[in-house]
Amino acid sequence: MIKKCLFPAAGYGTRFLPATKSMPKEMMPIVNKPLIEYGVDEAIQAGINAMCIVTGRGKYSLMDHFDKNYELEHQIRGTNKEALLEDIRATIYAASFTYIRQKEMCGLGHAILTGQELVGDDAFSVVLADDLCINQEQGVLAQMVTLYKQFRCSIVAVEEVPENETHKYGVISGQEIKHDLFRVDNMVEKPELGTAPSNLAIIGRYILTPDIFEILEHTVPGKNGEIQITDALLKQAKDGCVLAHKFKGKRFDCGSVEGFIEATNYCYENIYLTSDAPNQSHTTVKY
Ligand code: G1P
Fold it and tell me: Model pTM greater than 0.90?
């Protein structure tokens, strides 16, 4: 079954400079929780317990986050602040965290290939933490794991986007084999305006079968001179089967300032205000 989740997390997050000058973009908080922690929790909810993180220079706080902080714990022991650490403690105990550094940044396909040593020979999942996905009942990754159990092939998550935005994504086309599930016959990384094969855009959730690594090794740089996972997946789609799942839930593009603000507002109203954590001075504004 799917036991590992790969997090490509070596990017610079230049759109958020200067905030990301010395802080990894994955550590930017949506309300009171770093972006990557939402992704890790989504993976845990999908029954995945090994987090494999592809990092780069200056990402130490990411590793520290998924580790105990004895000094802090000592300081707040016995106070009402202690409960604020409960969620992250549970996350740390529910999973293992391993890291590898990406030496050069040559695209998402290259980042995934870098993670091969951590992932090994089994099918695995990939989460791009920038894409924050929220679905109260069943997370997007859990939806995909359920499908993987049935179909045993690579799966990408897709959503419909306006036609004038398709150039920002990998875009698929395919045949709908059952409700919201497509067998992919074409996929293009960031197509030029007006040339997209459909309006079904890939968002940052993947399940990949391990043969993807060999394909990636032979994938030549594509869009923007980078090794694209979309190109490797197209090869898999032509030779066998790749599915695209139109997921249930909300997705926020936290790689953009607008998406980040939207996610913040949504999580503040729907998660933070409704949680029982103490020391949140929201009780009077709860609605
Ligand atoms: C990457 C993928 C792209 C996908 C997108 C989802 O692009 O290359 O196919 O649609 O993630 O967020 P990036 O946003 O890293 O440029």
Answer: yes
